[in-house]
Amino acid sequence: MAGKRRVNEAGSSNGLRGDVLCVLGVLKVATADQIQRLASPHLTYRHTLKKTAALRKEARTASHRGAANDLRRHGLSVDGGRTRGGEEVRLLTAAGLAAAAIDLDREPEEVGGMPKGAGRSGASHPMTVNETVIALIRPKPDLDLVAGEPAEAVAAARAAVDAPKGIGALTSYATEVALPVKGTWKNPAIGSARADVVVIAPDDDVPLLFIEVDNCTEEAVLIAAKFDKYARFFKRKEKDTDGIEKPLWRTRWSAPEWEGYERVHPPVLLVFHQVGKRSAKSQMQTVADLTRGHWQGRWHGEDGYHSYDGCIPIAATTLELLREHGPAGPAFWRFGRDHREPLLDAIGNPRRDAALARRHQAAREEQRRREEEEAAAREARRPVCTDCGQKFSDDRWTAVDVRDWARSRESHPHLCDDCQSRAAAAEKQAEADERERQEQERLHQEADAEQAARKAGGWLGRWRT
User: Fold this and answer.
1) Confidence at 460, pLDDT banded by 50, 70, 90
2) Which of 12, 62, 229, 390 has CB 3.0 to 4.6 Å from 16, enough for a Cys bridge?
3) Is the pLDDT of residue 373 over 70?
4) How many CB atoms lie within 10 A of CB 8?
């Protein structure tokens, strides 16, 4: 143990250091509190008997602060300044990012480089990005690890477990992802977009989602201009390894093709946090007005839905609503709609899905009706046995309906199997009876002839004498 302490003086375990590496490998910049809530959510429900929130926070984050300190001693992490609230910010060095890439099973290019100066400006934007990721994941505590805590803490942990699940896990997320309109993934050209967050969670019906975060400090026109870059990125095509040209984003991420004629771009979610002076609500509306050309679909009145061929589905919410409702709650406003709805509905097209479902159901009903009519018509043509009146079985019908001249026809095509068997047996018996009769008649004739011959022989003999 003493040897371990000399290497890791804060006494952290491999697991704790791995937690810090993975969280910082995804988020780039984070506080010990954010690392703990993502990696060990059960600790949120411990130390509840401490007198103040500050003391409880210090106790529940102690393990991960120690792990971050040990990583710093190994040259894998550095202190990145402090947030505006005074919390210490942690980030990885180049060596730490390389180690995180191994733990996350990602290429080094996917992990990215060290953020510059995040803590010097208070890290306001990265902190909101992190809180957005946490609110989307909604990490569930392990109830076994809070056993023995006060009843209120256990009840709170159980409520968190029973609440609707979030989207994906930590490994489903990536931050600060370049979206090159020209150049390469590693060296995007000037004018390329950079997504704050990219989510890949197909098991939760989110194959691909881009997220932009704003603290209500940026002008709406600048936010809207990002979607011009998104549109250029989505339209960029390159040949994939199979030699087929496809959208560039599909060479890195996979997502199912839309059904039918629609080819909709991946969705983008805007998350506003009311930190700056601008109103989140007015920001949403202004950005929606400025980006109408990117998201507005075409109305299909006969089916009651919009199609979005070539459009970008854009939804918006606030961090407050996201924390309150989670992805499964009514927290998201899809541009062009007049109500809030769950995330999957907001980035999807439920009216179109319902219309297609109705269309498919009608097609299935029509197919079923045709099959029933064909079956009825076939039944009307089914032969009936001329003896017993029973309908032929399918096998019997096939046997008597010989279309191949090389095949011999059935002996009694107008009879069913049973009646044919009885008729064939009767014919065989009749043939046997006829042969017997003929044989008896032949024998009788031979006997008569023999008797006649004997009579004739006797008369001649007497005459000669």
Assistant:
1) low
2) 12
3) yes
4) 20
Range of the domain at 334: 164-348
d(CA 252, CA 279): 36
**Full DSSP string of 243-282:** S-EEEGGGGT---PPPSTT--PPPPEEEEE-TTSSS-HHH
Read off the CATH number of the domain in which 72 is found. Answer: 1.10.10
Burial 272-297 (b: 16+ CB within 10 A, else e): bbebeebebeebbebbbeebeebbeb
Q: Report the run of H or E that residue 178 belongs to, with start and end.
A: strand 173-179
Whether residue 150 lies inside any domain: the answer is: no
What ranges in 13-73 are assigned the alpha helix state H? 14-27, 32-39, 53-73
Domain count, the chain: 3
More confident: 83 or 21: 21
For the chain, percent of residues with pLDDT exceeding 90: 61
Q: List residues bridging with 341 in a β-sheet.
A: 332
Distance from C-alpha of 360 to C-alpha of 381, rounded to nearest angstrom: 31
Same domain, 113 and 63: yes
Angle of helix 53-73 relative to helix 32-39, nearest 10 degrees, comes to 90
Contact 298, 306 (CB under 8 A): yes
Same domain, 62 and 193: no
Residue 171 DSSP label: G
Q: Which residue has the higher pLDDT, 121 or 126?
A: 126
Token pair 């003929």 in the structure block, residue: 438
Residue 3's pLDDT is what?
45
Residue 260 has pLDDT above 70, yes or no: no
On whether both 283 and 417 belong to a single domain, the answer is: no
- Looking at residue 420, what is its pLDDT? 87
The pLDDT, as a whole number, for residue 158 is 96
Between CA 24 and CA 103 the distance in angstroms is 11
**Cα–Cα distance between 127 and 214 in angstroms, integer?**
11
CA triple 35-37-40, angle to 5 deg: 90
Two structure tokens written together for 39? 């990696």
Is residue 415 a part of any domain in this protein? Answer: yes
Residue among 335, 107, 57, 394 at smallest CA distance from 212: 335
- Both 298 and 409 in one domain: the answer is no
Query: Same structural domain for residues 343 and 403?
Result: no
* pTM for the full predicted model: 0.80
**Which range has the top average pLDDT, 213-227, 294-308, 382-396, 429-443?**
213-227
Confidence of residue 177 (pLDDT cuts 50, 70, 90): very high
Which structure tokens are listed for 279? 């109103």
Cβ distance 60 to 46 under 8 Å? yes
Coil, strand or helix: which one is 31?
Answer: strand
Q: Is residue 39 part of a domain?
A: yes
| Joined tokens for residue 65 | 């602060």
